[in-house]
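Help needed: design a sequence for this.
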């Protein structure tokens, strides 16, 4: 016999069937914990790539909190029975990309590898496969249904811009995004999906802190960056509380030549031999800024979900971007075939240490901070970059032409699209906990909007949830990542 779900629950409430309600709640809470704890805890030119040749590294101020394997690029294997989405393999995939350069208008020319004449297409036919658990493909329809009246922001450098283009391309297969804002240089932008009242923004803040940058449009700098280590960039902090979900990242820009300030006084520098300043090393600055970023997040009382995305490796071989380095591979690498450069190891060490210190404090303060660790799976994709095809038809006139390669950013479509699969999976873990807690505390504590949102999720996911293995969850993105009592 079928009952309207509202009538069913109201009848239980009216007749005070406490034991039945309690039993349902306990089952859902148990399901939530079972699902949650099968996881582990936890448009720019190539000149965005820093000059790595003269990078100075200061001695680490603390004993590392992470394993050497983790620093080298691959997380250590979790305890038996647990699943880490970021430990896995790239496996062949016979399907086609969700979008192409012809179907998506958001791809910037430098990442439009297909339009620019890249002859091979094998790099499009791989999917990330975590070991020990299933990863569903990103479902743009269900995603948009689940983020009605919500807002997302990707905050960082040109890789964040690369990522937002990937998201826009996938979501626009359902409804095309409409741009509603851009700054003068088109580096910070915002789009809306009108039917869903869903907004997604990209905020340009490559160092996350206040900085004066003296580069032209081609990335040629006439002076060192002036970086204030103790002042966060208001380009993102002034909008911080307005977003329901954020993906924050940095890293590569810290390797550029810079003068460091604290209290508006010169503290030292990185790679400034012509100036009489103390050489502090880029890792000193990265650690200082990340500490301040995480401290700001911890104290923010933000009611949404915040991801810190780890820095992504480049794949230049036989040189850097400025010295003939190239990326000519056409298939993914095997684990261990590619290692992080010394500079990338330092960046990764700093961000993992600082995140680990911040994570527990954030949890204590009720702030939902998660690590989005795309570094290991990205390390295995040297085939996914534009290379010489950042330019339009670079070998049309001369098949031996010499050109600058981009081995940092990602082709679109390409491996970066798999980041969205991971993102959706990480978000829906919280959904299960919300459902269980809502059932446990009773519907009378919820607003009508919460109940409607829950009903939409259940109607599309209940049967699927019952049929899935215990390490997968139904898609959906309720609320701000936690229960909101009214």
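Sure. Designed sequence:
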């Amino acid at each position: 016999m079928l009952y309207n779900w509202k009538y069913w629950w109201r009848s239980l409430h009216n007749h005070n069937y406490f034991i039945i309600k309690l039993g349902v709640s306990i089952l859902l809470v148990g399901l939530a914990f079972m699902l949650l704890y099968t996881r582990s805890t936890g448009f720019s030119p190539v000149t965005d790539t820093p000059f790595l040749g003269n990078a100075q590294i200061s001695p680490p101020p603390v004993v590392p909190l992470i394993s050497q394997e983790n620093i080298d690029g691959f997380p250590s294997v979790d305890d038996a029975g647990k699943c880490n989405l970021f430990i896995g393999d790239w496996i062949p995939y016979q399907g086609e990309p969700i979008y192409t350069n012809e179907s998506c208008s958001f791809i910037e020319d430098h990442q439009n590898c297909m339009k620019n004449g890249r002859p091979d297409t094998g790099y499009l036919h791989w999917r990330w496969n975590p070991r020990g658990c299933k990863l569903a493909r990103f479902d743009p329809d269900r995603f948009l249904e689940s983020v009605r009246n919500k807002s997302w922001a990707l905050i960082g450098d040109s890789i964040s811009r690369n990522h937002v283009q990937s998201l826009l391309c996938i979501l626009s297969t359902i409804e095309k995004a409409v741009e509603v804002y851009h700054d003068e240089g088109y580096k910070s932008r915002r789009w809306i999906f009108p039917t869903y009242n869903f907004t997604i923004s990209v905020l340009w803040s490559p160092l996350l802190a206040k900085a004066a940058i003296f580069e032209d449009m081609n990335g040629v700098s006439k002076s060192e960056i002036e970086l204030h280590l103790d002042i966060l960039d208001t380009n993102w902090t002034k909008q911080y509380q307005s977003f329901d979900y954020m993906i924050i990242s940095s890293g590569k820009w810290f390797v550029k030549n810079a003068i460091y300030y604290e209290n508006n006084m010169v503290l030292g520098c990185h790679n400034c031999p012509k100036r009489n300043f103390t050489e502090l090393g880029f890792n000193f600055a990265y650690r200082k800024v990340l500490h301040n970023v995480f401290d700001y997040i911890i104290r923010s009382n933000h009611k949404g979900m915040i991801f810190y995305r780890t820095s992504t490796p480049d794949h230049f071989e036989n040189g850097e971007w400025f010295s003939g380095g190239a990326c000519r591979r056409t298939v993914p690498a095997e684990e261990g075939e590619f290692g992080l450069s010394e500079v990338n190891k330092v960046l990764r060490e700093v961000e993992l240490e600082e995140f680990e210190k911040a994570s527990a404090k954030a949890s204590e303060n009720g702030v939902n901070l998660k690590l989005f660790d795309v570094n290991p799976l990205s390390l295995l994709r040297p085939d996914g970059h534009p290379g010489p095809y950042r330019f339009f038809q670079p070998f049309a006139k001369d098949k031996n032409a010499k050109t600058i390669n981009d081995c940092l950013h990602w082709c679109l479509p390409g491996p970066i699209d798999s980041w969205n699969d991971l993102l959706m999976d990480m978000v829906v873990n919280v959904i299960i906990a919300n459902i269980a807690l809502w059932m446990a505390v009773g519907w009378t504590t919820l607003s009508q909007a919460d109940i409607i949102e829950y009903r939409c999720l259940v109607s599309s996911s209940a049967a699927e949830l019952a049929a899935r293995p215990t390490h997968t969850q139904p898609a959906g993105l309720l609320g701000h990542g936690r229960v909101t009592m009214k």
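The chain has one domain: 46-432.
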